[in-house]
Amino acid sequence: MAVGLSQRVASLSGRVQWVVGVALLVAFLAVPQVYGSYQTGLAVELLVLLLFAASYDLLIGYTGVVSFGHALPYGAAAYAMGMAMTGRPLPLIPEAGVSFPVAVGIALFAVVIISLITGWLAFRLSGVYFAVLTLAFSMVGYYAVFESTEFTGGDNGMLVTRPDLLGLPLSDYVTYYYFTLWIVLVSFLLMRRLTNSPFGRVLVSIRENEDRARFLGYDTNHYKLAVFVVAGLFAGVAGILQGLYLNILTPNMMYWSTGGDALLVTLIGGMGTLWGVIFGAVFLLGARELLTGFIEGWPIVLGVVYVLFVLFVPDGIAGFLTDRSRSAWDVVSDLRGSDESDES
């Protein structure tokens, strides 16, 4: 499914993709100027979900690795940042805490270590066993922060405040929105660069046929571990942004259902595209926002919709739109060809 979709998306004109990208950027830039604080807050959540799901797409969409524990780096980075900033009892951390940039560096370093260890252990298995083990790691993280009241606040959560950064008051919702937008944009460009690099092409070859990639001389386990760490890093950035936006960190950030959101967004948007998660995230947040106000059992309705997507739109919204765009372009090309033949 993802193989054909990646090839079809790649066949689209680069100019068309850039036009769509610029149009989306302009739309995001205009959000705080057009809407109020509530809608801008929803846009922040949308951006964070985009980044979180795109990081997961590196695993499932480009490498064919199904992980049920993607919430672990997402929540671990947020908690590591929070503990470093608030001066929780940690080795080498002063009682008064550290500055925001240093705390972010500590958080991302922690995510690298966690991803290396869990990935090294999990990739000893494959298939469903790998997926279940990653789920187990995520739940270990969940219960660790839930029970460690002294370090994490336990079920009550950990309060964090948005600091000033280079003179910019991140406590202001408009400032924080643009801060989040630029972080997500840079992250998307980096992931785009990665997937178009020789490293990214090896990942795709692993997804298509790991035995063949191994036969060609690639150490597939090393490549999978590397992308596991990279995906964890970007998930960690998303977790930090979400924690700062909410001003509180809770154990649910590491719960399996949080990682499930990334999986659902990727499936609905289209795997192996990166930009498909935009449609998936808009659909997920939009459906939740609409259904929660009208239907008491909205999760059941949403679950039925997901099943219908898998059955009838297996390539996701991105695949559906790509096929329609190519069909329209083929019609235009045929019309041009017939006109030229008539003139001759």
Strand order of the largest sheet: 1-4
How is the biggest beta sheet arranged?
Answer: 2 strands, antiparallel
Number of helices: 15
Mean of pLDDT? 85
Low-confidence segments, given as residue ranges, are none
Question: What's the quick description here?
Answer:
InterPro entries: ABC_transp_permease, LivM-like. The protein is mostly helical and about 350 residues long.
Describe the structure.
- The structure is a single chain.
- Strand 2 (164-165) and strand 3 form a beta hairpin.
- The strands form two sheets. A two-stranded antiparallel sheet has the order 1-4. Strands 2-3 form a two-stranded antiparallel sheet.
- Helix 4 (71-86) packs antiparallel against helix 5 (100-122).
- It has helices spanning 2-11, 14-34, 37-60, 71-86, 100-122, 127-147, 149-152, 173-195, 198-208, 210-215, 220-246, 256-269, 276-291, 298-312, 316-343; strands spanning 158-159, 164-165, 168-169, 248-249.
- By secondary structure, it is mainly alpha-helical.
- The longest helix is centred in the C-terminal third of the chain and has 28 residues, at 316-343.
- The two termini are 42 Å apart.
- The relative contact order is 0.17.
- The chain is 75% helix and 2% strand.
- It is globular.
- The chain has one domain: ABC transporter involved in vitamin B12 uptake, BtuC, CATH 1.10.3470.
